[in-house]
């Protein structure tokens, strides 16, 4: 009976050996997966047949159309299997009702659930309470084996291969009802269910990747055949514009079915050999799973069926990285990886999902050029760090992702001139072309921006006039002046004195000399607090990790340390470290951290004046100063305050 309570075929009798048979059973029995598979095999075997009857100038086209017919039959076979599998998984009352009312739109969510490993969510949405693995075990017959509903002879069990070779074990049902036992059968079933999941994922991926091409075949035969031997690609991907093939191609005029696309057309181009090869590969997976699920569902007493068991591969089906898909909004081209331009191979993209490099840049009109170095750490010469993300699907079709280039930079690596240039790029909205110049490559690779170029982020200056002034000094003296993290009052006084003067080379050298003198006198201290869980005697601050680190900020000038706190050296040695022994504090670790966060400068001065008896101390603190090198803008010392608990106090 159907879901709406109606009996189908009330006026038609189905009979066998003069006995009436249930229409549901008869129709399901006639839905035999062997029929369509045999037709596909016939098509595959006759692709080159009958060409003598075709005009010579049309033979290549006729042959390619035979491959398209193979593809169409394959997609139809997948839909047939998907419809049948959906019926089994959702355990519907009427096979007839489901088979005539299930559309491709019903199959798509099931296939997407396989790809996203969300079968459990799919089942919940359809009020199916079964565990996904248990359900697949039931559909493909493994549950029946474990429960003894399908039995096997002792001889077959004895011939089963050892654990290391558990591939395609074929066991036949008998009337003896022997039930395999033990860990071996558990492994057989577990691995086989995992393998079935992987095959289902491959089938779903193929179908969803090519369903719009399938629609192009079904609706209006929107297919053309070409014998192009060279592609010229002019899109926003980083590719040479020449890719050569030596075979015919198939073009599908597709309609984008994405809800956000408004159904725009695009061309899907694929070589004839790839379409044929991938269609035949996926047909075997469909046939294997379809026949097994069908045999289990239609098994009657006394029947013999083949159940295939597999050793787990640990990954989903086909993992060959032999294809690449190149996309723009109007077209998608699937090509053998072997014809991809050399620059992609140089960047080792086929084996990686992300690559990094550093670069310098220049800006000319609306074109931004990057000079690339194959390094991962930026330098003052090549301060831009570039990350190229290679977005890919789970299997054999790889795509260039939109917005794939991520640029970032640290101001520590920038000169004032470079900083101002990046600031100009950040403010521009007319950059339309990005050019990439790679080492040992004579060609420049262009990326045309359809959307606004996403700028390299640098902070806005608080005093832009000061930066412009320093840039002029650098140009006049031919000196690379680094970006100033801190501008002191003395530096500002030099600027105010010379801001309006004419800059000849002699005056510029004089100003640069005065700026350097200011840098020698003015220094800063970057303060960090490290809170430790254990007492100071149990901690190695160089090797162990503190429980909490708090970055407090920068103090102007040198943060002095009193010399009566037990240090071996008090003199500054750039690049070295100065330490004090732990001293007591009347505050707990938590209280001391709070006071430092409120006013670390004043609290630090108070700490140096304290003289707390060790028995009265609630915590201990020590100082580490890592002396920085002197620069034009001053020296930044890193000052670390370590806080330790005492006598069982918690941090």
- Specify the biggest β-sheet: 6 strands, mixed
Specify the overall morphology: elongated
Q: Termini distance?
A: 72 Å
> Which strand order spans the largest sheet, edge to edge or round the barrel?
15-14-12-13-16-17
What would you call the structural class?
alpha+beta
Report the radius of gyration as a whole number of Å: 37 Å
Taken together, the total number of domains comes to 4
Number of strands: 23
Topology (elements, then pairings):
Elements lengths: L13 E3 L2 E3 L1 H8 L2 H13 L13 H32 L4 H7 L2 H12 L3 H7 L6 H8 L2 H5 L7 H6 L9 E3 L10 H37 L4 E4 L3 E2 L11 E2 L4 E7 L9 E7 H26 L9 E3 L13 E6 L2 E6 L5 H5 L7 E11 L2 E7 L10 E6 L15 E4 L7 H12 L5 E5 L6 E5 L15 H14 L11 H10 L6 H17 L2 E8 L16 E9 L20 E3 L3 E3 L3 H10 L1 H10 L9 E8 L9 E10 L6
Parallel strand pairs: 8-11, 13-16, 18-23
Antiparallel strand pairs: 1-2, 3-9, 4-7, 5-6, 7-8, 10-11, 12-13, 12-14, 14-15, 16-17, 18-19, 20-22, 21-22, 22-23
Helix pairs in contact: 2-3, 2-11, 3-5, 3-10, 3-11, 5-6, 5-10, 10-11, 14-16, 15-16, 17-18
Structure summary:
The chain is α+β, with helices and mostly antiparallel strands and 651 residues long. The protein has 18 helices and 23 strands. A 6-stranded mixed β-sheet has the order 15-14-12-13-16-17, with no helix packed on it. Strands 18, 19, 20, 21, 22 and 23 form a 6-stranded mixed β-sheet that branches. It has a 5-stranded mixed β-sheet with strand order 4-7-8-11-10.
């Amino acid at each position: 009976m159907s879901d709406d309570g109606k009996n189908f075929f009330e006026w038609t009798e189905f009979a066998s050996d003069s006995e009436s048979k249930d229409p549901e059973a008869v129709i399901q029995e006639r839905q035999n997966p062997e029929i369509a598979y045999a037709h596909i095999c016939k098509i595959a075997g006759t692709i080159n047949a009958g060409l003598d009857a075709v005009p010579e100038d049309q033979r290549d086209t006729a042959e390619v159309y035979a491959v398209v017919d193979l593809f169409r039959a394959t997609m139809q076979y997948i839909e047939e299997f998907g419809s049948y599998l959906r019926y089994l998984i959702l355990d519907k009352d009427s096979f007839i009702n489901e088979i005539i009312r299930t559309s491709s739109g019903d199959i798509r969510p099931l296939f997407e659930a396989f790809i996203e490993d969300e079968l459990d969510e799919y089942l919940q949405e359809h009020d199916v309470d079964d565990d996904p693995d248990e359900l697949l075990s039931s559909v493909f017959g493994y549950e029946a084996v474990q429960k003894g509903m399908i039995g096997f002879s002792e001889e077959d069990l004895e011939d089963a291969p050892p654990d290391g070779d558990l591939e395609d074990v074929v066991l036949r049902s008998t009337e003896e009802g022997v039930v395999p036992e033990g860990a071996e059968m558990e492994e057989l079933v577990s691995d086989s269910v995992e393998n079935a999941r992987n095959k289902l994922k491959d089938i779903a991926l193929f179908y969803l990747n090519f369903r719009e091409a399938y629609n192009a075949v079904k609706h209006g035969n929107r297919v053309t055949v070409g014998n192009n031997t060279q592609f010229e690609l002019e899109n926003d991907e980083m590719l040479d514009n020449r890719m050569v093939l030596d075979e015919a191609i198939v073009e599908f005029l597709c309609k984008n079915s994405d809800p956000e696309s408004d159904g725009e057309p695009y061309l899907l181009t694929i070589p004839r050999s790839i379409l044929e090869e991938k269609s035949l590969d996926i047909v075997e997976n469909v046939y294997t799973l379809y026949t097994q699920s069908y045999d289990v569902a239609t098994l009657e007493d006394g029947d013999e069926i083949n159940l295939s068991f597999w050793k787990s591969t640990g990954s989903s089906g086909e993992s060959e990285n032999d294809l690449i898909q190149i996309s723009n909004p109007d077209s998608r081209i699937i090509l053998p990886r072997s014809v991809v331009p050399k620059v992609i191979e140089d960047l080792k993209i086929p084996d990686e999902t992300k690559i990094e490099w550093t670069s310098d840049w220049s800006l000319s009109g609306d074109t931004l050029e990057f000079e690339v170095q194959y390094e991962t750490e930026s330098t003052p010469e090549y301060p831009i760090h570039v990350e190229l993300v290679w977005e890919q699907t789970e299997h054999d079709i790889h795509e260039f992702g939109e917005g794939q280039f991520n640029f970032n930079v640290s101001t520590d690596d920038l000169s004032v001139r470079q900083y101002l240039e990046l600031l100009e790029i950040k403010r521009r909205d007319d950059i339309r072309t990005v050019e990439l110049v790679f080492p040992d490559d004579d060609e420049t690779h262009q990326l045309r921006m359809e959307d606004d170029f996403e700028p390299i982020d640098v902070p806005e200056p608080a005093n832009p006039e000061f930066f412009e002034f320093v840039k002029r000094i650098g140009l006049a003296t031919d000196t690379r002046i680094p970006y100033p993290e801190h501008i002191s009052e003395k530096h500002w006084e030099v600027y105010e004195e010379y801001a309006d003067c004419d800059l000849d080379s002699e005056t510029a050298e004089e100003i640069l000399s005065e700026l350097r003198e200011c840098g020698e006198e003015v220094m800063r201290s970057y303060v960090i607090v490290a809170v430790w869980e254990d007492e100071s005697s149990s901690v190695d601050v160089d090797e162990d990790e503190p429980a909490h680190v708090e970055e407090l900020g920068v103090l102007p000038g040198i943060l002095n340390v009193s010399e009566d706190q037990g240090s071996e050296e008090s003199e500054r040695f750039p690049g070295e470290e100065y330490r004090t022994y732990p001293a007591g504090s009347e505050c707990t670790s938590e209280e001391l951290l709070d006071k430092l966060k409120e006013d670390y400068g004043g609290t630090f001065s108070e700490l140096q004046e304290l003289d707390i008896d060790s028995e009265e101390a609630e915590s201990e603190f020590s100082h580490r100063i890592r002396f920085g090198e002197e620069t034009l803008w001053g020296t930044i010392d890193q000052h670390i305050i370590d806080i330790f608990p005492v006598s069982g106090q918690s941090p």
